[in-house]
Amino acid sequence: MPLKLVIIALPPLCVTCMVLRIAGVSWDVTACIAAVVLVFLVVIELCDRLRLVPSPWLQQQLPAAAEESMAAPPQEVALGLGASAIAGLPVYRYNQVSGGGSDECSVCLGEINQKETVKRLPACTHLFHEGCIDVWLRSHRTCPVCRTPVDAVAVPTSAEIDGHTQGD
After folding, report:
1. Are 123 and 150 in contact (CB under 8 A)?
2. Which residue among 11, 16, 74, 84 has its CA within the 20 to 30 Å range from the CA of 165?
3. How far is the C-alpha of 77 from the C-alpha of 75, rounded, in Å?
């Protein structure tokens, strides 16, 4: 620590002292400023060293964590929906209602064209290209637009929903 402190702090500290002396600041004030800078650097060095020393509290916790990891293998967290849940979502052929604006897939940001295969999420009724939403739902359980949880069980019963007819 002392060598590092001397190498790093001494040149700028000497330059600072010389500038203050040339500016007409008394030696007492210059010495006080130098002392404050040195104390600051020493405190930073001590904090840096304390950060590198392992905590006794953490060392007591590590064996317990190691025993837990040996007792049971880690379970994988399922991020998205399963293939059967994704396949259970309603699939439609897109037919734009006259006078309505064109729909856009929020996953690929592409326009949904006539007769394209689309999926509508049951809970929030947002519409997406079939391939786009399938890829999204493999790694997420929510709608990409509103973050509503996707529930594949709540499938609409009617064959036509808001101008979109169900696919064959």
Report:
1. yes
2. 84
3. 6
What would the pLDDT profile of 33-43 be if each residue is shown by its tens digit?
888 887 887 78
DSSP label at residue 100: S
Distance between CA atoms of 140 and 102, rounded to whole angstroms?
A: 26
**147 exposed, middle or buried (CB, 10 Å; 0-12, 13-18, 19+)?**
exposed
DSSP string, 12-61: HHHHHHHHHHHTT--HHHHHHHHHHHHHHHHHHHHHHHHHHSPPHHHHHH
Residue 166 φ/ψ, nearest 5 degrees = -70, 140
156 φ, ψ to 5°?
Answer: -65, 150
> Residues 101-152: pLDDT tens digits?
677 888 888 888 888 888 888 888 888 888 888 888 888 888 888 988 887 5
Order the strands of the 91-93 sheet from edge to edge.
127-129, 117-120, 91-93, 164-166, 160-161
